[in-house]
Amino acid sequence: MLRMARLLLVLLLAGLAATTASAQTGLTYFITQVDASAFPEVHFTLRAVDLGNKAVEGLNPSNLAVYENGEQVSELEITPQSDGPITYLFVIDQGRASNYQTFGYNNLRLAITTLVSGGYFADGRDTVLVLGRQNVNSDQTVVLLPPTHTATDLSTWAANFNFGRGSGATKGLLGVEDGIRRIQEMTPVAGSQTAAILFITRYIEDPSATVAPTAAQNAGDAARSNYISVHVLQTDSNQIGKAALEILASASNGQYAAMRSSNYVSVVSSVYQAIAAQRAYYTVSYRSPVADSGQRQITINTPERPSEGAIGSYEITLQPPSVAFVEPVSNTTIRREAAFGADGTSMTFDTSRVRVIAEVSWPDGFARNLESAQLFANGNQEDSLQVAAGQTLLEFEWDITDIVTEGVSSVTLELRLADELGMLAQAEQPVNIEVIIPATPTPVGPRVTPSMVALGIPVLCIAGLAVIAAGGGAFYLVRRRAAATATASVAEPMGPPVTMMASDLSPAHALATLTVLEGPKGLVEEVLRITAATTTLGRNPAQADFAFYPDEESSVSRVHCSLSLEDNLFKLTDTNSSAGTRLNGRKIQPGAPVILADGDEIVLGDLARRGVKLRFNLATEESRGPYSGTADDRTHLMGDFPGQGS
């Protein structure tokens, strides 16, 4: 039974020890200087103390959690700092029994200024002030040195102060309590920075020795509740009333030190060093995950408001992001022109993808990252972006290859965005897609190639001689001379005129060439020679030097454009055509000549509606041909069907 009782006692004591040890691990946190000006980035200053009011080091994201309005934040960044400010407040008891002359005035001055000479005071960052408890006409606390951040102010004051004693007894502990209140006034958030009271006394004169311990306990508790440590420096060699002074220091988590003329430097140095070691604090940064407007609370390691320490807070008003289309503009029409392939049946379109550009803005002034950005067309998702941090200009790609119905279709484009807080933005815009499909091409006969022409010439000559010898009919060539005043007439034409091909041209001296890239099937890839200073192109063979699609429906005008040679430069002029003329894809102004360069591409009218695409080249020695002395002035019909020349 005795053994069992002993075992239970051991377990009970172990449990109490474990509970005590667990309690000693508790920390108190102080959050100050919350800055949300760069929201959603939030910054604040954090100080942590243990149960002994000692600043805690070694905090990091693995042992510290931050909550905002009860929601734990991520991407926490904790940076340790070691230059926290300290407030040093001296309380010098100058009662009737103080008699510092025995200890030595210079010794007392040196004990105080060791704070500076020992390097414990951070000039410009720390604060020091001196209070005195005096009883001359009455017992009161007076300011001997107002608060200062300058070390030399303390040294100068100490060198000139006489440390004289009063005429009556003092309540030294009330001087300590006045010091606590003064620190409270100087530190808006108690515990957010290190604060220490250095109480210099011979012994407590009032209250009596029987009451003093209780009064000291109360003063110490008041200091501890405000996270102020009281360090007692006793000058009495006999340590009279030591018990009350030790209680005062212990209750406030401070130190008691008995100073003697032989050891006071080392004693005060140890105290100052212990205080100066409490400079540790942290700067903390995170990105807020909360989308609510209003007041926000920041807590450490718990979503609830703690009973001790200081929480952080800030207020903010948020609005959803805004998104607007930049390109294409509202109600714009995007043209999709088809062209038949070489087989005459397959079609290709000139436009298959459209670039959509949007811009994001933040009405509340707080730019945030985008978690998603999507483009929809008539409710169908077309593209989704991975948006970089800080990116505000968004570029989507809209695939329109499935829009092939001829005519104009209306499409509603929609943008849907979500920022990192889950706040949504949406914008809609109508656009039109015009699909242009040309008429089915008419099959054409075999193409006449230069080799066929070369082979046909002797055959035709022989056939012609045979016909003449036999007394057959005659063929009349239809020609028009631009400068001639007489017109040759044909008495009786033998049949409809044929389409003139590039191989039909006389070998006049070429100034430049036009290669047919798209147009009448029989002329694609043919090279047309320009032999006159001014050459007109169009559809009417009676008005144009080169006529395309004569007597057919076409987007080429009767007289569409002209090429002229001026000062050794060829110029292209649109002659008020209905469907326009394009040079290298850009529409030129009617009546305004533009200079041509070798390799330029010219489009007459609309390729989807029987337009013509030509490539202009300056003549080379090979393409010039033999010079005949006169320019070819025939009108050339460029079409798949017979036309009428003039």
Would you write up a description of this structure?
The protein is 20% helix and 34% strand. The protein is α+β, with helices and mostly antiparallel strands and 646 residues long. It folds into 4 domains: 94 residues, Immunoglobulin-like, CATH 2.60.40; 191 residues, Rossmann fold (3-Layer(aba) Sandwich); 115 residues, Sandwich (Immunoglobulin-like); 159 residues, Sandwich (Tumour Suppressor Smad4), CATH 2.60.200.20. Helix 3 packs antiparallel against helix 4, helix 3 runs parallel beside helix 8 and helix 6 runs parallel beside helix 7. The longest helix is centred in the N-terminal third of the chain and has 23 residues. The radius of gyration is 51 Å and the shape is rod-shaped.
Layout: helices, strands, pairs:
Blueprint: H1 2-24, E1 28-35, E2 41-49, E3 66-68, E4 71-72, E5 77-81, E6 86-94, H2 100-103, H3 105-117, E7 127-135, E8 139-148, H4 151-160, H5 172-186, E9 194-201, H6 212-225, E10 228-234, H7 242-251, E11 256-258, H8 264-276, E12 281-287, E13 294-300, E14 312-316, E15 322-327, E16 333-340, E17 347-349, E18 353-361, E19 370-377, E20 380-385, E21 393-399, E22 407-419, E23 424-436, H9 450-469, E24 512-518, E25 527-530, E26 534-538, E27 546-548, E28 559-566, E29 569-574, E30 581-583, E31 586-587, E32 594-595, E33 601-604, E34 612-618, H10 621-624, E35 636-638
Parallel strand pairs: 6-7, 6-9, 9-10, 10-11, 16-23, 26-27, 27-35
Antiparallel strand pairs: 1-2, 2-12, 3-4, 3-13, 5-12, 7-8, 13-14, 15-18, 16-17, 18-21, 19-20, 19-22, 22-23, 24-25, 24-34, 26-28, 28-29, 29-32, 30-31, 30-33, 33-34
Helix pairs in contact: 3-4, 3-8, 5-6, 6-7
